[in-house]
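Fig. S4 source data, part A: sequence.
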Amino acid sequence: MKNNNVILQTTTKVTFFIIFLFSIHIFFAGHFAPGGGFVGGLLTTGAIVLLLLAFDLETVKETLPFNFTIVIAVGLLLSLGTAAGSILFNVPFFTHAFAHFELPLFGDTELHTAMIFDLGVYLVVVGAAITIIQSIGGDE
């Protein structure tokens, strides 16, 4: 059954990007304020679920052609690799490094290895939630 809800679909296209951009903001703000990879991942998942509500599963799969199982694996590798990378430098597990860099357009910026860990968490949350939702929604 093809549903033709033009208002919902048009509004969803705009709202998806607003929620997604806010999730990226929450992800980057997570080092100095509440947020980070987990909350950003949940917001991104919410945006994708909104797409699934407005469109059908096949349309969303065509629009976002990711294998979310691989997204989970990449996220786990990033998170565990960052956490275990501290062992290579003979410091305690989960020790993170940071430094200040002068970046064009951004100026003085502080970059953390914790951001790589948060990116892994972000990918695991999005991948796991969307995989679960697709497996439940894919049943006929």
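Fig. S4 source data, part B ends here. The beta strands are 98-103, 107-112.
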